[in-house]
Amino acid sequence: MPACARPVKSHRMIPDSFQAHDCTFKMRLTGMGHPSKNIFMQVSRPLTVSASLKGLSGRTRVPGDKSISHRSLMLAALASGRTRVTGLLEGEDVLRTADAMRALGATITREGTEWTIEGRGVGALTEPADVLDMGNSGTAARLLSGILSSHAFNSVMTGDASLRSRPMRRVTAPLAANGAEFLTREGGRLPMAVRGTGEAKPIEYRLPVASAQVKSAILLAGLNAHGTTIVEEPVATRDHTENMLRHFGVEVDVSRLDAGGRRIALTGPVVMTARDVTVPGDPSSAAFPIVAALLVPGSDIWIEGVGLNPLRTGLFTTLIEMGASLSIENERVEGGEPVGDLHVRHSQLKGVDVPPERVPSMIDEYPVLAVACAFAEGPSRLRGLEELRVKESDRLASTVALLNVNGAETEVIGDDLIVKGADAPLGGGTVQTHMDHRLAMSAVVLGLAAAKPVNVDDTAFIETSFPGFVELMNALGAGLAA
């Protein structure tokens, strides 16, 4: 046994028998010895944001939907034949997924704005030669866990410092029922080794907390299982996985449960046929210029080609309830998803009470919604935010800190966030983003409307989900400068 190797007592830790028989591989698992591939090295990019001197104006397009982009690469790699994808989000998170699927045997190329994927077929991915580094992407790591679990080879997954701090147990616990084995660091955290099974059993699982990521991971595992995989969710979550599975020829049965839940079932093993995919604009990315335009006086903007999946538009519904001038024009269907153009003008917002059942349809938009609430007239109560505690950071605590340091009054009662509304001028604080791209963008939006400048400690990680964010905002008149 090498001098650096030590026996482990917990089955949840990565044992020496699962690693290569040298110290170099162990160093890679912990982010050492292979910095070019296993550590997401990035220079911090602080930004001071001052109020926009004039209203935002113009027409723009936001990058492609991140959720659909991840799924298009994964499912195309599992399909038989050639898939062409246009509109793919080319941010760091999605590029990590592309790298992972290449490492698992798919051929993926890019020419101009079109991506071509030569799929391997369900169950035909191959063992990767190196650690799969998912960077900052929790979506990629969790969904890929489902795929890896039903392939008969060993693999290891890691990520950047933020992703390595996030628990994976809520995904690995149900997936283990199909016969796979997951070995993690203490607390169920990455790096994680996966011993997949070539004889995957179907899983029946009721989600304790609504989560599209957990649901999707189980469904993806079920593609190569023998029998019917069933997931019950207490509240309907985004259904991009179900939609895209159908697009690739998989029969997915969805039925309603009491109190708004759903039962999703598919029978495997399945055969998937390659189909071209058009990725719509990401509504979660559109949230930031939308809220900025609502808050900055004199603003009048259009955002073209935004995805309008009804399980993703909770923010739009909430903002309209707050009195936002937000209208949807030119509605159409592209690639199986509803799409439209959004017209947004500056509005005086009022406080709102957001029900917990709306959380799944706007889970990523709560930080920027909280910013909108801080400028609204009267208090707002955002209910049922438990899921925010396990995002890129503890997003509930980080959102509270973002608001408080800039003069807004908040209160957390259980999993509810109360924002008191604008009783005093806001701004003047320094926001700690904790490597969370959505917190950074929310802080920028706050600064554009605040009475005093807002300092953001790091905006580098915005590129993981919204490449060109600063340039897009400046094209609308934001006047941001590093």
UniProtKB/TrEMBL annotation:
It comes from the Bacteria. It is an enzyme of class 2 (transferase). It holds the Pfam family EPSP_synthase. SUPFAM superfamilies: EPT/RTPC-like. The active site is at D364. Phosphoenolpyruvate binds at K66, G138, R166, Q213, R395, R438. Residues 55-471 form the Enolpyruvate transferase domain. Pathway: Metabolic intermediate biosynthesis; chorismate biosynthesis; chorismate from D-erythrose 4-phosphate and phosphoenolpyruvate: step 6/7. The keyword Cell cycle does not apply. Its EC number is 2.5.1.19. It is found in: Cytoplasm. Keywords: Amino-acid biosynthesis, Aromatic amino acid biosynthesis, Cytoplasm, Transferase. Monomer. Catalyzes the transfer of the enolpyruvyl moiety of phosphoenolpyruvate (PEP) to the 5-hydroxyl of shikimate-3-phosphate (S3P) to produce enolpyruvyl shikimate-3-phosphate and inorganic phosphate. Belongs to the EPSP synthase family. This is 3-phosphoshikimate 1-carboxyvinyltransferase. It comes from Gluconobacter kondonii. The gene is aroA.
